[in-house]
Amino acid sequence: MAEQPKSSLWLFDSRLRALRFCYRLASGAISSRRFGPSARGAFVKRRDLMRKGSSLLTVCVTVFFIIVISAAVLAFIFGIYYLGMAGLFQLLGIGYDSVQALALFVLLFLLLGIFVELFVKVFNTLLLPAVASRLLQKILEFCIRYTFTLPVVFLLNHYMSTIHIKLMSQAALAAFVVVIEMLIDNEDYSQKG
């Protein structure tokens, strides 16, 4: 006797019953002793995976907020540098064509300053602990920082046609920037121990 094909309604109904059974087994409404520990364990793992999915959302939100906070901190630092440079430019009589030119100068100064700071830290760490006097340490630190900052100002003035800095103003600008960085940094390089 040939079997008759089952209707799709019967198939849907059986799947629905299986899903209800799985839900009740996973939620503890049905005792898992009847089906063995492995049946309940499989459903618990599935439920734990759903919790991991929600933790993925938590991780995404956390990463998003870390990026937003980091961007806000970087924007704040850029703003401080921008306003500081605008004030120094006004004080030293340095001319610039537009506000965008000043912003580009500050951005490039910060980017080049990151690389310069690496060399400054190396020289400061190697040379300054050998100096006994705190005053001499600060003078040597100023000289090291100034030696690396002045070429950055010179190169930016040379390659940016929208910024017009005289040679004496370049030296004064580099000196002001170095003094401000030293006041903010204020590290003690004397040997301990």
Automatic annotation (TrEMBL):
<feature type="transmembrane region" description="Helical">
    <location>
        <begin position="163"/>
        <end position="184"/>
    </location>
</feature>
<feature type="transmembrane region" description="Helical">
    <location>
        <begin position="139"/>
        <end position="157"/>
    </location>
</feature>
<feature type="transmembrane region" description="Helical">
    <location>
        <begin position="56"/>
        <end position="82"/>
    </location>
</feature>
<feature type="transmembrane region" description="Helical">
    <location>
        <begin position="102"/>
        <end position="127"/>
    </location>
</feature>
<keyword id="KW-1133">Transmembrane helix</keyword>
<dbReference type="InterPro" id="IPR025912">
    <property type="entry name" value="YrvL"/>
</dbReference>
<keyword id="KW-0812">Transmembrane</keyword>
<keyword id="KW-0472">Membrane</keyword>
<protein>
    <submittedName>
        <fullName>Uncharacterized protein</fullName>
    </submittedName>
</protein>
<dbReference type="Pfam" id="PF14184">
    <property type="entry name" value="YrvL"/>
</dbReference>
